[in-house]
Structure formats: C-alpha cells, structure tokens
Design brief:
Blueprint: H1 4-26, H2 36-48, E1 54-55, E2 61-65, E3 72-78, H3 105-121, E4 129-135, H4 143-149, E5 158-165, E6 172-174, E7 178-181, E8 183-192, E9 196-197, H5 207-217, H6 221-225, E10 232-241, E11 247-248, E12 251-260, H7 263-284, E13 287-297, E14 300-302, H8 304-317, E15 322-323, H9 336-339, E16 344-350, H10 374-393
C-alpha cells in the first residue's frame, strides 16, 4: 500500500512539472477528434517516463503500469479543447486562434501525467494494474463511445475520472454516490416558411417569427410539464435566420439541448420538443424539420461501493483539503458511457483561481484554473488506485 505522507512528498516534488505540463497543453487546444499535437506530446512525455504508450484511433493515448495481469483500474482524462476565443491574457494563452482549453482539460492531462510519473517511480508497490486513458472528444460526446467500440474497457474492472471546477474553492473536493451529472440530448430544428420583402409581410410566412415563438414557447415545459421533484433543463444555444435586414427569412435553424437525470423525464422532454415545434409551425402555416439526438450520453451515476472506498482513501490522501457536497449538476460528461459497462466513479476538484474571489465558469473565454489545484487532481487519482489495491487485498 502507499503511504499518504510518502505520496504527498512525491507530489510536492512534482508541482513545478505539473505547472509546466498544464501551461504546455493550454497553449495547444485542439478540436475534438483532431487532437494530434496533444496526442503526440502526451506520448512523448509518457515515453520519457519509461512507458510504452499506445496511440488510439484517431487520437488519444493509452498506457499501463503495474502487474501485467490481474485487477485493473482505469484512470481517465479528457484532452480536447473548445471553439472559444481566449481572453485570459495569460502568458501561455492558446496559440490556436478560435480555440481554447476553456474547460480545464489541460489540467486533467497534467494531473494524469503526474499520476503516471508517481506510479512509474513506485511501480514495485503496485498490486493492481493501472490503465491510463487520455481520451479525445469529450466536448462533442463522441470520445468515450468511440473508445468503448475499440474495446478499451474489456480488460478493466473499474474506472475513475474527475473534473476541475472553478466555482468550487481551491482545497475542496467532492466524491459522492448516485447521480452526479445529467443525461445530455441534442435537438436540431429547421423552420420553413416563405421568404419575401420586409415591406410585404402579408405575402410571406416568417421563419424567424416561427423560430422565436418556439424558443419562448418551450420556456414553460420544465416548469409546467415536469414534476418539481425532477431536475430538467431545455436550452436553445444556437439560432440562425435571415441574410438581409429587409428580407423576411424563409428558413430558421435552431440547435439546443435537453438535460435530465431520469429516462422518463428525458422521453417527456423529447416528446415536448416535437409537439411544440409542430404546433408552432402549423399555427403559422409553415413547416418544421426535427432531428433529435437522444442520449448523447446517459447521466453520470457513481457506483456506491466504489464511491465509499475512494472517498475513504481521499480523506487520508487529501487531509489538507475539505470534502464538500455538490448537488447533481445539469452539465454533461461522456464518462457516463464507461459506467454503462464497468463500475465507475467521477469526482470534482475545486480550482477557483482569482485571488479577489472572481472566478470565471467553465467554457468562459476568461476561464482559468489555479495551478495550485493540480496536486489535488493527482491525489484524487491516487486515492482511486489505493482503493483498488485495498479491495484486491481484502
């Protein structure tokens, strides 16, 4: 078994390197499924530690440490960036225009590389096999499903992952059983009307008005059709219509998301989107085309027994930190796909960065993380390793 004090000392030595890794990856955010530079750099770092990393297809990396056979724990970090123009002003800001690590994945990579280094240095103490998974394409919810199709889970007994959150204080973490993050569905709507001159609206069927009516119409679905005891969200995030100020648009495109924790609720939201979109289109004499991606990923639900094991170890490894309770979040995470195949636990670590108490949320162009939070990520991963070793020894 690992001594929490010994691990703390090793992580302390790693802190400068953790910052270097985080800054390096922060500079090179890449599109989902196109994380080629990131993949290459991860392979280079792991190879330098003595690993024999395997490049996944089309991107991503996998590497193993510990006994060749036996109980296997997977540790997962996501590696893709977001199409956000960075406005942090950091000296290590993105060098890829229009792209940014606005969700902390650069910190996730650094944290897992830190675990990789600690485990390699102390490999003789490992009684379980640890599989390090640097997963592509979390932001568009395709990466986990893709790796499962490639069989990434077939030699894995359980899996652990985490997310850095700026709206949690530094020095805090959360490891809790049950629902943690929501099922994420996506919908795409195209309203068709009849375009024409802005001065002759009576000759037209305005697609912009139809689409706007729909956006307002669905605002009361959650408050009037879903039980107050159920969590749900409907958001339209993209609205495009028209080409010219004096032309009535004949076509309007919307894209949005529905979030929920129960399949029955998710089904109701889907039905409501179809029902209300068709009613709006019929009411204006237009038409609507609907595409609904149901279950981009299921909700993240932590397995109780594994959660309690890791939580117990985390309290020892993170004795200088505070465990907090975080209510289930309507954010999405494709880590949930792994949980459909094997027991899994997903944790949160606080990384609020601004000394004045002003923290920008994930996906904001000024999002940043406190680099002093990176050791916490390493400790939480190590807690999962220790919990797996303790299970094997029982």
């Amino acid at each position: 078994m690992f001594s929490p004090k010994e691990i703390a000392e090793e992580i302390k030595k790693l802190e400068p390197e953790l910052s270097v890794w985080r800054e390096m990856f922060h500079r090179i955010p890449e599109k989902s499924m196109e994380e080629f530079e990131t993949t290459e750099e991860i392979i280079r770092q792991l190879t330098g530690m003595g690993y024999e990393p395997v490049a996944l297809s089309p991107t991503g990396v996998c590497a193993c440490v510990g006994p060749e056979k036996g109980y296997t724990l997977a540790l997962r970090a996501d590696i893709d960036g977001l199409p956000v123009e960075e406005k942090t002003g950091l000296p290590f800001a993105s060098v890829h225009p229009g792209w940014m690590h606005a969700c902390g994945h650069d910190g996730h990579i650094a944290g897992l590389l830190g675990v990789a280094k600690v485990l390699k240095q102390m490999e003789e103490k490992l009684t379980v096999r640890v599989k390090l998974i640097f997963q592509p394409s979390e932001e568009n919810t395709c990466g986990a499903k893709m790796l499962l199709k490639q069989g990434i889970h077939k030699d894995v007994d359980e899996i652990f992952g985490l997310h850095l959150f700026s709206d949690m204080e530094r020095g805090t973490f959360s490891i809790e059983e049950g629902p943690r993050m929501a099922q994420t569905d996506r919908f795409f709507l195209t309203f068709y009307g009849k375009g024409g001159h802005a001065g002759k609206p009576h000759q037209c069927v305005d697609a912009t008005v139809m689409a706007a009516d729909f956006v307002m119409n669905i605002q009361n679905v959650v408050s009037r059709e879903i039980s107050p005891a159920d969590g749900a969200v409907i958001t339209v995030g993209s609205f495009h219509s028209g080409t010219q100020y004096n032309v009535i648009s004949g076509e309007a495109k919307l894209e949005g998301t529905c979030r929920s924790f129960r399949e029955e609720t998710a089904e109701h939201l889907k039905e409501a989107i179809y029902r209300r979109a068709k009613a709006v289109a019929d009411g204006y004499g237009g038409n609507v085309e609907i595409s609904y991606d149901f279950g981009s990923h299921p909700p993240v639900v932590n397995e109780p027994e594994m959660t309690h094991r890791i939580e117990k170890e985390a309290r020892a490894f993170c004795e200088d930190a505070r465990m907090v309770s975080v209510p289930p979040l309507m954010l999405g995470e494709d880590f949930s796909w792994y949980q459909t195949k094997i027991p899994g636990v997903f944790a949160f670590a606080g990384c609020g960065s601004d000394e004045n108490g002003v923290c920008y949320p994930n996906h904001h162009p000024k999002f940043d993380i406190a680099q002093s939070a990176l050791p916490m990520a390493v400790k939480l991963h190590m807690s999962a390793v220790q919990a797996a070793m303790r299970k094997v020894e029982q």
